[in-house]
Amino acid sequence: TQLLEQSPQFLSIQEGENLTVYCNSSSVFSSLQWYRQEPGEGPVLLVTVVTGGEVKKLKRLTFQFGDARKDSSLHITAAQPGDTGLYLCAGEKLTFGTGTRLTIIP
Amino acid sequence: DAGITQSPRHKVTETGTPVTLRCHQTENHRYMYWYRQDPGHGLRLIHYSYGVKDTDKGEVSDGYSVSRSKTEDFLLTLESATSSQTSVYFCAISESGWASGGASEQFFGPGTRLTVL
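Above: the input entities. Below: the structure tokens describing the complete assembly.
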């Protein structure tokens, strides 16, 4: 089983601050996905990264896939209350990380 | 939004009773999945289907069975519910499965909160 560890598990910051959350594994992945889940709803796909070293931007969110394809990060610039949610990374074989629960305080 | 519904949305049952959860899609996607979500464990795959009557086990399949007699419906059955099966259950769909070099987007339903007393 390919394990994905996410850190931190919980993060609470003020609106306007920057933050980075991480997804790490000892296994090599051909691709990684990031999902965001809001309370009472199912996860929604944010991005898929497939190339080692790849960087993708989605407005204020920047996703990076590690060169060795064993890790990924999500950086949020100038966080807003709408960014609040559970962020999950997912690898192939339908493996999900345990998630980072992010709270942005207005 | 992808057309995925789950029923029931909430259920309370007693230990030892059978329970069936239903997932219905209107997207005609080939792949369907059942996950459970528990604090500290994230999403864990129970079973998945890659076509009508074609199913396979996931990471935590013990105590669960599935059936898919039509493209649009995927049923999850707990043969004899136990308290350890108290969880939030999510159904998901995708057009294709995981393939080398890429992954298909999964669309998730709203979830079913199951409590086994």
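Note for the figure: The mean pLDDT of chain A is 94.
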